[in-house]
Specification:
With about 180 residues, the chain is mostly helical. It has one domain. About 65% of the residues lie in helices and about 0% in strands. α1 runs antiparallel to α2 and α1 runs parallel beside α3. The termini are far apart.
Length: about 180
Amino acid sequence: MQNKQKEVKHKVTTTYRKRLRQILKSHLNAKNKMQAINIYAMPVITYTAGIIGWNKKEMQNLDRITRKTMKMCGGLHPRADIHRLYLPKKEGCRGLREVATTVRFQCAGLQGYISKAKEKDPLIEAVWKHQAIKGYERKKEEMENGKLRIQQNGSTNSYMDSTNGKYLRSHQWIMLTD
């Protein structure tokens, strides 16, 4: 069983890297590259999230590979703030999904589905008891952790600092047109 998991992890990792390089070498703009990574490359890992056991070190390594490949292909400056890379576009950041967070969300969704379905199906209830699945409310917690990281470390964007993290596109547009 462990041998199969290693084989699947290797295939998933190589497919993810291949898709990542394919996106970053394309002639898309930065916004569309981030969306393409989230839509085309990230699902390779997401589909295996609840079935294959990804440990923390492997997920961090995949994030490191993503950032390294982005730097090599010119999609990320070597001194760029990596915390801003993973926060949403609405907040003036890049909007890339973090591998660890994506895997946790997928596992939480799967756990939520199993917890609701266990009442209807005794077989799923047996799986639930065997796996001893714990709580699955982490989505908002992960987002808050990302915001706290930026507040603690300080943002590299002086405009965001001056507005206390409230990034307004209308102000940016006025600043650019003046």
